[in-house]
UniProtKB/TrEMBL annotation, chain A:
Residues 100-113 have a biased composition (Low complexity). It is found in: Cytoplasm, Cytosol. This is Translation initiation factor eIF2B subunit beta. The lineage of its organism: Eukaryota, Fungi, Fungi incertae sedis, Mucoromycota, Mortierellomycotina. Keywords: Cytoplasm, Initiation factor, Protein biosynthesis. It comes from Lunasporangiospora selenospora. Belongs to the eIF-2B alpha/beta/delta subunits family. One of its GO terms (molecular function) is translation initiation factor activity. Residues 88-113 are annotated as: Disordered. Pfam families: IF-2B (PF01008).
From TrEMBL, chain B:
PANTHER family: TRANSLATION INITIATION FACTOR EIF-2B, TRANSLATION INITIATION FACTOR EIF-2B SUBUNIT DELTA. One of its GO terms (cellular component) is cytosol. InterPro entries: IF-2B-related, IF_2B-like_C, M1Pi_N, NagB/RpiA_transferase-like. Residues 18-37, 50-68, 179-191, 213-230 have a biased composition (Low complexity). It comes from Lunasporangiospora selenospora. Residues 38-49, 135-146, 231-244 have a biased composition (Polar residues). SUPFAM superfamilies: NagB/RpiA/CoA transferase-like. Component of the translation initiation factor 2B (eIF2B) complex which is a heterodecamer of two sets of five different subunits: alpha, beta, gamma, delta and epsilon. Subunits alpha, beta and delta comprise a regulatory subcomplex and subunits epsilon and gamma comprise a catalytic subcomplex. Within the complex, the hexameric regulatory complex resides at the center, with the two heterodimeric catalytic subcomplexes bound on opposite sides. This is Translation initiation factor eIF2B subunit delta. Residues 193-210 have a biased composition (Basic and acidic residues).
Amino acid sequence: MSKNNELVDDLVAKLKRRQLVGSSTVSQATLKLLIVVISRSNWTTANQLLTLVKSVGQRLIQANPTELAVGNIIRRVLHVIREEFREADSNASSHRNKSTESSHPTSLTTSSSMYNLLGETGSTVNDNVQYPSSLRSNIIQEIREIKDELENIYDNIKNQALLQIHSNEIIMTIGRSKTVEEFLKMAAAKRKFQVLVAETAPSYSGQEMALELSKAGIETTVIPDSAVFAVMSRVNKVILGTHAVLANGGLVAISGTHMMAAAAKHHSIPVVVCTGLYKLSPLYPYDEDSFNVIFNPDSVLGFEEGDLVEKVTVTNPYYDYVSPDFVNLFITNQGGHPPSYLYRLIVENYDPNDHTFDL
Amino acid sequence: MDPKKKTVGFAPEHDVNPSDLPSPGSNNSSSQSSPVSAFTNTPDLSNVNTPSSATSSLSFASTPTSATEPQNISKSQKPYEPMKSSYEEQWGLANKGSSSASHKAHKLASPRDGPGFPKDQQQSGKKDQKAKRSSIVSPTNTSSPIGSAKDVKGPGLGIQALASPSADGAQGAGGPAGGPSAKPSAPSQKSMTKAERRELQERQRVEKAQRKAAGLPASGRAAAQALAQPNSGFSPNPSKSLATSFPGADAEKVIAAAESTSQAKKRERLTKEMGLFAHLDPPKFANTASAPKDLHPAVVNVGLQMAQFKICGANARCVATMSAFRKAIQDYKTPLTTTLSRSMQTYLNPHISYLVSCRPMAVSMGNAIRYLKYEIGKNLDLPDEDARELFLEKIDNFIRDRITMADQVIISLGLQKIQDGDVILTYARSSVVQGLLLAAHEKGIKFRVIVVDSRPRFEGKQLLRALASAGVPCTYALLTAIGHVMREVNKVILGAHSLLSNGALYSRAGTAVVAMSAHERKIPVIVCCETYKFSDRVQLDSFVQNEIGNPDELVNDSNNNYGHSSTRCHDSVHGSSNASNSGVLGGWRESRDLKLLNLLYDLTPSEFVTVVITEVGLIPCTSVPVILREFLPMIQQ
């Protein structure tokens, strides 16, 4: 357990210090850690394992609550564990009384929330069953599949690029998102289009994005953030990356996204969000600021302006909350979905018991 | 080196970063020629600025440099005579009608001994001053001032830049970096330390040397340099004509060359304009070379300052233009065969087209000039001196009635709309809004201001500075944070460049986003706009009529100080080790697929604007054509 603790402490520290940021990196690190923890620890019952994973998860989430992907990955793992135990459970019970007809097909209980609503409590796990030794390796196997999914996420998303982008389009984007970058590059291989990138002050990640896209041979124009509204009327699509997707379909994305999405809505320009499913969080934004970070104001008003800094408040929010009304389409690694469908994906990927980590 | 080349160029007395300031160098190789003397009033401006620290509550000038304007306005509220003297104070010194070069040189030198001499120049050391003086005087006294050019350690920009193609490049480059900037208006220079500037110039020099070593063909070299260092003020290419000490002058020249040989493609490559905006003028790099010879120096001055955005903002530009024209009319000598009123139009026309060639005309300027022309046309038969007096008075009255007093009225009307506990959001900087907020604070209203700002000009910082020093509680945020800051706001007050006849608000780029965000949250959007900015133009989008700024402003390298601290932040965010991502876009001209678009204005649809405060009352913005049709003829009587 202590050796696990060391690893957990390490990741916690990295998250706290923001040495690890970005949904993709933190989710991969979390998954790697969980695989080690689960394979090394001693556990015999489902509850033991669930408690173990939850406790690790709690620490990681507290380390940086705005990295929602950490929580998502932990929920995915918990979901996998529950399913594996449930399957083992039903196997065992069906072995014990082969004559009695199984009350329900397992697949139905696990995947259909509607079925659960009608009184079936499939989520409880029986502790008194002797599990086969293959269980541990099965669970690890399942988690590795999540890992594979994470690694192939760009492929799955970018393969849909040609379905969304037609020739001679003008596309607008903001900030730097690896997903969007891959998506556009893929489309550029077959189609010719133009990209406008808002430079995204004060991080100027949009400039980097533009540089990357132009290197890939895409005709890219950098615009200051102020020109977003002015040129929006000629844009065909707004394609956004995001930091996280919330349960209602709202986005937590780099600041400036709200402005762009609202401008797009005013001009009735479709807004497409490219995101891996690991960014989909079952949490709900009760307050717009609940998932925001107020960042170092130095980049907004530097200390070179010392006399001024003294007298004024400088604010530098890192993220924006974008309400789901502004989004027309999510392109995930499982295909395109409207915001109204996200609740379904949440039910499929997470167990309702895991939305909050109560031990 | 050709000594002839060294004699040319006029060393401005304020020292400057070469990347930023137009050295009013002349393209004429004779040092005594009239263009040189025409620029002698450039230093005067900077001198006059300092004593006239903004005493007025109304500041039209959007840059500290043009602090001349506030003074101007405050005086113009008084009766006609005192105002005249204020003009003379500002614009008078150098161009009082004397055309003797040596006389001018005296005038040039004399103000620096006075108390009004800019502070930072005094800091730059007596040695420098001495050197400077020699550099200034030399064109007039010495026939071949090679020595003086070499001696100059200080900001003898014009001379040094031209005199030192490669070997002397280090010295030459070091020169302008030697003292603190005399132009506090340029934030990039101001916040750039000596070391930083030196470093930058060192880099540029190395780059140049490399290019040279690479053996680029002589003819293509200028183009390559223009591509590589669009901001460089130095043109080490001796084969070129000499009026090149302007930022971007190289690029401009190459563009001109490309155009003359009708190589449209080449031009496109240089300016890299976006297809959608191909109909708009490419950004202009004004220089004196393009100025006709017989322009009045005051106008040339204003033109250059506008081109450099030293004077910007609709009011400031209009006031500056009218004041310059006033000066021009005052100094105008009627040709023998005609009368003043009849020849005035033809006299002013090249001035106007020069101003347009410096920067596309502001709507406010257009309206003011139209008014002036109308007055001239109406009084063709007056005797010369009466006509002159009348025109001068008309200009003064225009500034007083349509701008100064209009602003007073707008402010008093606007005060009714500001209450205790308000949180007011404003974007960038408008002189009227600044006046209004300061007046509200003076009145004792307790309110808070959120100043939203954006790249690349960061105009809001000036407003922020003014408000903060007056003691108004302020919050500062960038435009990307608008969604975040808008929630606590209960009023948005914006300035305007122009109001169009369909009710659309034409203003600084970004205004539309702010108005939209406010509208989305049902927050009232109040626009302050004088009626002289109303335009009978109708525009549906921000494309048909707009202005393209210098795209290099978007490159945040150390040349352009704006972004440098942000890169630090960015590194820490991503935990990345790419130590210097400053100037991510530095090589954009080389990259085939990368373009920069620096749009200066945008169009806010009328539905976002709740009310417009004008000097004729609070009106909906769709009433612009009504005002234009019904009231303006009445006001103009």
